[in-house]
Amino acid sequence: MSTKEELACVYAALVLLDDDVAITGDKIATLLKAANIDVEPYWPDLFARSLEGVSLKELISSFGAAAPAAAAAPVAAAAAPAAKEEPAKGGKKEGMSPVH
Description:
Layout: H1 4-18, H2 25-34, H3 42-50, H4 56-79
Helix pairs in contact: 1-2, 1-3, 2-3
């Protein structure tokens, strides 16, 4: 479960991303201070360092592109007719040997 400090840093990073501003620990801390949100001093730098070399715009847009494909998979599986018939109770399937 996320803590208040984690969520505050995530939202601050998203605000910076939306404004096309480089995400740094100082800028995250400035946004949090302006929003009157108190966090431990290490959180802004921790988040800024964890996002170095990560393209957040690509990461966020990949979630949107994957959602329709993931939602369509269960629908396609449910629409496929059942190809296997279940054996009668107590009956054996062909080609299966008893387990000892």
